[in-house]
């Protein structure tokens, strides 16, 4: 018993001190073995899946592939995916073992991916390559794609670099990304870089410009109406992102960047800026607006590429409007992302200092975690209701804008389908509005990676079909081009 306890302690230390995903996975697998959870991963029946029907569908897929029956394979694939997607998305499948889920999940996804590639690579009678490409594009549109959303968080948001680097190293970084406040800086830095530039960004974080904050003096701050120098933030943003429009960023990187900004006028609605809705808007101006925390930085007028000028020219965009921190009204623009980009799976990296203490128990199980969720949900609902009633008061006074912002922050959703959250430490809160040192940068990045590793198995499985669609569509596009030439 003492030996087992010592081994457990050693493995737990290895898990917590892992320097990369491979080391973490090795320790997690050993701990699962010690707890008897590897046996659950090999178990025939889990109670969470329709095992017999899944195996029947897998057998039918294999039979169709062996007989070259692509038409029937398509029908079976459609039926099987529709039938089992809900079960495969069950987060409880990933709460039993640390190192992964039941093997049937992987076997079923193997069968689906193999079948998709078979349909892609083999002829279908009377179906041209162009028509097959349209079939795959239509199916991908129905199925949807994953998106990564990076919350605000001020200095805590550096943690998003670790989250995205962990995903990038496993080739799991989605092409659709959204960010607000500090999350907008990180998302912007990624989505304005091509593959080689992104590799340099992740492999050499020491090159990142770190000085975003410069406090104004008391007298200057009172005159200006904000506590920090926006020129310093502008220098930080342009050094790390450059100055390109959303359309130029998309054409250069191939990634869909989305940045949340909130209005200063109540008659305006929050905006999700991207290359579809605002192609000419400059990314750096959108990031500045999304970082404009009331009282910390001033509101921002967006700027756009001047169609009549050169590459360095710009003009005001909606010049009568000014915008502030995207976290105020839309930290995670879930519905707008789903409509614009056909998102079916949201991966959320949450680092907002006022949010993470209340969601750290969300992925835990047991009576204690349930009680915490119930208490937080009840308190959250009461606060949101009280603020809503106050906002509707016929005599709101001069604090009306503050009440509206507080209501917006308490009534919005801060969680997605898969959640990676910053682990709050009381000692770190003093750093939230200060420029990080190189040591702080490394620490926050490491925390982001360590928080992501336990989610990688779930992310890999739940985005696997989307990634298979991407590969098949790319293959068919190349074939279509060859046929034309």
Describe this protein's structure:
By secondary structure, the protein is an alpha/beta fold. It folds into 2 domains: 1-144 and 461-483, no CATH class; 146-362 and 415-452, Cytosolic phospholipase A2 catalytic domain (3-Layer(aba) Sandwich). The chain is 54% helix and 9% strand. The chain has 21 helices and 9 strands. It has helices at residues 2-16, 21-34, 37-42, 51-67, 70-88, 103-121, 129-143, 159-169, 182-191, 195-203, 218-224, 230-241, 246-253, 283-290, 327-330, 334-341, 367-391, 400-411, 438-452, 456-462, 464-484, and strands at 145-150, 176-179, 256-263, 271-273, 303-305, 314-316, 323-325, 343-350, 418-421. Strands 1, 2, 3, 4, 7, 8 and 9 form a 7-stranded mixed sheet that branches. Helix 8 links the parallel strand 1 (145-150) and strand 2. It is globular, with a radius of gyration of 24 Å. The active site is at residues 181, 325. Keywords: Hydrolase, Lipid degradation, Lipid metabolism, Membrane, Transmembrane, Transmembrane helix.
Which radius of gyration do the C-alpha atoms yield? 24 Å
CATH fold annotation of the largest domain? Cytosolic phospholipase A2 catalytic domain
Uncertain segments are 369-376, 378-384, 397-411
Q: Please give the CATH architecture of the largest domain.
A: 3-Layer(aba) Sandwich
Mean pLDDT: 87
Tell me the number of structural domains: 2
Q: How much of the residues is beta strand, in percent?
A: 5-15%
Helix share, percent: 40-55%
- The CATH class of the largest domain is identified as Alpha Beta
**Largest sheet features:** 7 strands, mixed
Shape: globular
What string gives the helices and strands in order?
HHHHHHHEHEHHHHHEEHEEEHHEHHEHHH
Span between termini: 71 Å
Number of strands: 9
> What is the number of helices?
21
Structural class: alpha/beta
């Amino acid at each position: 018993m003492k030996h087992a306890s010592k081994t457990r302690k050693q493995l737990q230390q290895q898990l917590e001190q892992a320097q990369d995903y491979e080391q973490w996975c090795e320790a997690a697998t050993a701990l699962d073995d010690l707890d008897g959870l590897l046996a659950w991963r090999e178990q025939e029946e889990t109670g969470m899946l329709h095992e017999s029907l899944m195996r029947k569908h897998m057998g039918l897929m294999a039979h169709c592939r062996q007989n070259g029956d692509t038409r029937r394979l398509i029908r079976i694939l459609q039926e099987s995916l529709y039938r089992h997607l809900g079960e495969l998305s069950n987060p409880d499948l990933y709460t039993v073992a640390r190192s992964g889920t039941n093997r049937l999940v992987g076997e079923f996804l193997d069968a689906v991916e193999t079948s998709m590639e078979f349909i892609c690579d083999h002829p279908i009678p009377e179906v041209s390559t162009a028509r097959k490409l349209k079939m795959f594009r239509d199916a991908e549109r129905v199925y949807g794609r994953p998106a990564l959303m990076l919350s605000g968080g001020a200095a805590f948001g550096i943690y998003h670099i670790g989250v995205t680097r962990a995903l990038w190293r496993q080739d799991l970084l989605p092409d659709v990304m959204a960010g607000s406040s500090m999350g907008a800086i990180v998302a912007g830095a990624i989505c304005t870089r091509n593959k080689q530039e992104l590799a340099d960004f992740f492999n050499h974080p020491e090159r990142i410009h770190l000085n975003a904050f410069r406090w104004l003096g008391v007298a200057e701050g009172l005159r200006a109406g904000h506590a920090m120098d926006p020129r310093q933030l502008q220098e930080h943003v342009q050094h790390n992102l450059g100055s390109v429009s959303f359309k130029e960023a998309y054409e250069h990187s191939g990634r869909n960047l989305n940045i949340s900004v909130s209005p200063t006028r109540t008659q305006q609605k929050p905006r999700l800026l991207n290359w579809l809705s605002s192609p000419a808007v400059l990314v750096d101006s959108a990031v500045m607006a999304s970082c404009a925390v009331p009282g910390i930085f001033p509101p921002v007028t967006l700027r756009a590429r001047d169609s009549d000028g050169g590459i360095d020219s710009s003009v005001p965009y909606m010049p009568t409007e000014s915008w502030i921190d995207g976290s105020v009204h839309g930290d995670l623009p879930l519905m707008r992302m789903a409509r614009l980009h056909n998102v079916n799976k949201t991966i959320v990296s949450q680092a907002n200092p006022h949010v993470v203490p209340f969601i750290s128990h969300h992925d835990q199980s047991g009576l204690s975690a349930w009680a915490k969720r119930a208490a937080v949900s009840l308190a959250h609902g009461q606060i949101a209701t009280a603020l809503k009633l106050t906002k509707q008061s016929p005599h709101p006074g001069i604090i009306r804008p503050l009440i509206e912002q507080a209501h917006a922050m308490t009534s919005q959703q801060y969680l997605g389908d898969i959640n990676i959250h910053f682990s709050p430490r009381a000692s770190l809160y003093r750093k939230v509005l200060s420029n990080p040192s190189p040591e702080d940068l490394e620490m926050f990045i490491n925390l982001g990676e360590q928080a992501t590793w336990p989610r990688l198995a779930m992310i890999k499985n739940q985005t696997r079909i989307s990634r298979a669609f991407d590969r098949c569509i790319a293959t068919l596009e190349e074939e279509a081009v060859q046929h034309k030439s």
